[in-house]
UniProtKB/TrEMBL annotation:
Protein name: Protein SIEL isoform X1
Compartment(s): Nucleus
Cellular compartments per GO CC: endosome; nucleus
Keyword annotations of the record: Nucleus
Gene encoding the protein: LOC107805433
């Protein structure tokens, strides 16, 4: 063994990664002798010292050797002294590469011996090597340095003669200002002034970093001020950034508008100045502390003039998009400013760039949500044109804006309805969303609705033959619009003829799909029946349609008949005349609303989890999961189970990210614990992906992004570097996301874009992940979990497993070498027949056997199946007693899943549908 290790671990041109993996397996094995470990340490030390003597050495070999050193330090503390001595000596070699220096510092920082990380960092960062300084400043968060010392160091390096060093120092200041508490305000003020000076640097990259640093330091100063001076300091910061909107660099202008959108306090007269070409009387004589030019150290309030007009009219679409995004937050600060913004956003809706048009619509949607979107008739005429856009996502966002827009006149109401109908006529595939928009617009404008319906009532009426045909898009749209009237009316009677609601039953399925977020089909039918009071033109026609309603059983018919009864109808009128259809459904949707609120809270605390605030976040997540478990609603069990799994997945992913990427402890995570954590996260994500029916495309993208994050963390393990299976799975999952996003229902996140860029740089034929495991890890900085919204339509595939008369004191008899049969009472919930189920039987985790469940031999339907099954176990051990762990698993049928190599069992990974049950056996007396 020692000879084999020496031959493979000695530094030469034929060194192989498999030798390092062999050393890794010996290090983590608790049975490895001290003599073998001493030999490994000695050989690795020799290889590390001789790295620079061979020009053909793999440049990333030192990274893997130092990783093994960190594992040795954890598993064998008595070797720490020798390790520290070797690593310290290696880190001080002048020719040591940047990556090796960082790895050496990380290895030193995880040891139990007192190592002054700060002093070593300072000694290395002052080296003349530019690449060393740049890498250390860029990764300064990995080291344990006091904030006051770090601020001083970064401030000093902003005067470095090399632009990349200045930029890295400024980025470090920006990151530090986002997460520290102000102790010395004068020091923060000095950083702010230095960043302002660098706004006039000759290098574009430095000016970009300076904008970020000015924004971060400025907001920190504003937060430290008393309420009286907060607005003045915030106005000064806003004007300082406005002075850069005309910068020659596109990237700088993008950063400026991004920074402007983060400011939370701005005076209204300054905001209005950004949309005006001339200085107002209120700003002509006003000056604020700042730097307007290289030699002018007071910034006039008039510098804000035309700032956002420059952005919205910029020749580059990225700048226009950034300006629209900034207006999205600033428009909330002032209603008058919002009214002015609308005039300019209407012009942006004609932009050549789809991304710019979409961002302008998103900005208007946010303005409408806070009640700051006021459209005039000329605006509405321009806005309705966007409903005919060829991009489905733009049309969808435009309809969302219309749902929240106030229409002050009947003429504008008619224009809005007509625009939605033209959308439906040109794009029939938009029917569901158009019907939903018509319904909400009718609710919000009940004063104009009756007038319009009276004008078009003849169009809604049946033909002379009495046929209720509503294939015409305009007729169907008017009918949907008419049915929204009682929801808005507070009177006991309605001006809309009740027979209109009887006509609406012919479109029940189509209307129910459009109102799925508000009401289910059963309740909608009962509601229409109540509103129409059964004044049908043809009762037989109605019940003919009713027979074809999907899922309409005897109980629903009885419910409709009961509602038609005079006395019950009178009771409903007294109780519900003052309620809307939304109120009609509130009780049924309160569980879903609770789940959605909890999921939003989980998304909001993700940044804290990523920063490493593990204890505080864990307590919050546990309380949220406890609240979810208190909701005992079987109708929405799928949503509850999915929400619990989603919270578990984010919690595990956050723990892994905080330990493996966002802190200096990359190497201190023990191999066994890392493997266990990744395995648990993988099982959780597998359950989310395969155990639910009714997942939307947005839900699938949400899960796939989590799988990508888990795969990237898996590739950071050394033993996974030479295994291409995980990398191939990443490519497959990325293809799935591209396919879903290509259909236009959702868009790729910045995280997916960054991962795609990293994957494009990887050549899978030459083991590149082993050479540089950080290629994909960097993209995790862009990961932000998507918001999960429960619609109430999820069903969870589950199983129940029972057997009687068996426990530890009453074992089943068996004869060694012969098979035994276990009689199981099985109940399956929501499992379609096209799935593959197996009974998994494990003998002390050493032997696993699978038995296939054939759905053709099982009676029942998809929702619930109950049956008894005798499962045979063939390999009984030569022992007096043993126990089997039994559960039911679902084979995950997917091309991107890793093959599950089991003899006679499933060909893919499996998801557990129930908890494991233990069956006890005792040898029979012969």
């Amino acid at each position: 063994m020692e000879h084999h290790l020496r031959r493979n671990l000695e530094t030469n041109e034929n060194i192989r990664p498999q030798a390092l993996l062999q050393a890794l397996s010996l290090i983590v094995n608790p049975s490895t002798s001290d003599s073998t470990l001493s030999f490994i340490l000695k050989t690795l030390t020799l290889s590390l010292k001789n790295l620079d003597n061979n020009p053909n050495t793999n440049p990333f070999l030192s990274h893997h050797i130092l990783h093994l050193f960190s594992l040795l330090s954890h598993h064998r503390p008595h070797l720490s002294h020798n390790l520290i001595s070797t690593v310290r000596e290696f880190s001080l070699i002048p020719s040591t590469s940047t990556r090796s220096l960082a790895d050496a510092l990380a290895c030193l920082s995880i040891s139990d011996i007192n190592v002054n990380d700060e002093s070593i960092f300072l000694s290395l960062v002052l080296r003349p090597c530019i690449s060393v300084r740049h890498w250390l400043l860029f990764n300064v968060s990995k080291f344990d340095i006091r904030p006051s010392v770090l601020l001083t160091v970064l401030l000093g390096f902003t005067k470095d003669p090399y632009p990349y060093i200045r930029g890295a120092a400024l980025d470090g200041l920006a990151d530090l200002c986002k997460c520290i508490v102000v102790e010395d305000e004068s020091l923060i003020h000095g950083c702010y002034l230095r960043a302002v000076e660098l706004l006039f640097d000759s290098e574009d990259s430095v000016r970009c970093s300076a904008v970020r640093a000015v924004s971060a330091c400025g907001q920190l100063i504003v937060a430290s001020k008393q309420e009286r001076s907060k607005r003045d300091r915030s106005d000064a910061l806003f004007l300082q950034l406005c002075s850069m909107v005309r910068d020659m660099s596109v990237k700088v202008r993008i950063e400026v508008f991004s920074a402007l959108g983060k400011i939370e306090i701005v005076s209204e007269y300054i905001l209005l100045q950004t949309l005006s070409k001339k200085a107002s009387s209120a700003t002509k004589e006003m000056n604020f502390p700042g730097q307007y030019a290289e030699k002018i150290f007071r910034i006039p309030a008039s510098s804000a003039s035309f700032a956002f007009l420059h952005g919205l009219e910029d020749e580059f679409s990225e700048v226009r998009e950034s300006a629209c995004r900034a207006l999205q937050t600033l428009a909330i600060l002032s209603a008058d400013f919002s009214h002015e913004v609308v005039n300019f956003l209407m012009d942006v809706l004609n932009d050549d760039s789809t991304a710019v048009r979409l961002q302008a619509l998103d900005t208007m949607h946010h303005m409408a949500m806070v009640g700051h979107l006021k459209m005039q008739q000329a605006h509405l005429h321009m806005f309705l044109g966007i409903l005919l856009d060829s991009h489905s996502l733009i049309r969808c966002t435009a309809r969302k804006v219309l749902k929240l827009t106030e229409l002050p006149s009947l003429a504008m109401f008619k224009m809005c309805v007509d625009g939605l109908i033209r959308d439906f006529e040109l794009y029939p595939q938009d029917e569901t969303e158009v019907f939903s928009a018509l319904f909400v617009v009718g609710q919000n404008n009940r004063n104009f609705l009756v007038s319009l319906i009276n004008e078009v009532s003849q169009m809604i009426e049946p033909s002379s033959g009495g046929k209720l045909g509503y294939d015409n898009a305009r007729k169907a749209s008017y009918l949907v619009l008419a049915t929204s009237a009682p929801v808005s009316m507070k009177q006991q009677t309605c001006s809309i003829p009740p027979r209109i609601f009887s006509y609406a039953v012919t479109l029940l399925g189509r209307i129910a799909r459009s109102l799925a977020e508000i009401v289910d089909q059963r309740t909608l039918l009962a509601y229409f029946s109540y509103c129409s009071r059964f004044t049908f033109v043809s009762a037989s026609e109605f019940f003919k349609v009713e027979e074809h309603l999907e899922g309409c059983d005897v109980q629903l018919i009885q419910r409709c008949e009961a509602i038609s009864n005079y006395h019950i109808r009178r009771k409903l009128q007294l109780k519900e005349a003052e309620s809307s259809l939304l109120d009609f459904q509130v009780e049924q949707n309160k569980e879903i609303n609770c789940v959605n609120i909890i999921l939003q809270v989980v998304i909001d605390i993700w940044p804290s989890l990523k920063l490493g605030l593990i204890d505080e976040v864990t307590r919050t997540l546990r309380s949220l999961k406890a609240e979810l478990r208190m909701i005992s609603d079987n109708n929405h069990r799928g949503e509850l189970v999915f929400a619990l799994l989603y919270i578990d997945a984010l919690e595990r992913l956050g723990h892994l990210c905080s330990h493996l990427m966002f802190s200096k402890e990359f190497y201190c995570h023990e191999c066994g614990k890392l493997q266990c954590s990744l395995g648990k996260l993988d099982r959780c994500l597998r359950d989310m992906r395969y155990k639910f029916i009714g997942l939307t495309k947005e839900d699938n993208v949400l899960i796939l992004e989590l799988i990508i994050a888990n795969g990237i963390l898996t590739l950071c393990k050394m033993e996974a570097c030479v295994d291409e299976t995980t990398l191939k799975k990443l490519h497959s999952v990325m293809s799935c996301i591209e396919h879903i996003c290509g259909e236009g229902s959702t868009v790729s996140s910045s995280f997916v874009v960054e991962v795609q860029k990293s994957l494009s740089e990887i050549d899978t034929t030459s083991c590149p992940i082993l050479d540089n495991p950080y290629l994909l890890l960097k993209s995790l900085e862009h990961f932000t979990p998507r918001k999960a919204v429960s619609s109430g339509n999820l069903k969870c595939m589950e199983a129940e497993l029972h057997f009687q008369g068996n426990d530890f004191q009453n074992p089943l008899p068996f004869i060694s070498g012969l098979l035994v049969g276990v009689s199981l009472d099985i109940t399956l919930h929501n499992i379609p027949s096209d799935n593959r189920l197996w009974i998994k039987m494990s003998l002390e985790e050493k032997l696993t056997q699978f038995v296939f469940l054939d759905f053709h031999e099982i009676e029942g339907h998809n929702e619930v199946r109950k049956f008894t099954f005798v499962a045979p176990f063939y390999q009984t051990p030569r022992a007096n007693c043993f126990s089997l762990k039994i559960c039911i698993v679902l084979e995950c049928m997917s091309d991107d899943d890793q093959l599950f190599r089991s003899c006679g069992g499933p060909n893919h990974e499996v998801a557990h549908l129930c908890e494991e049950k233990e069956v006890y056996f005792s040898a029979a007396v012969r």
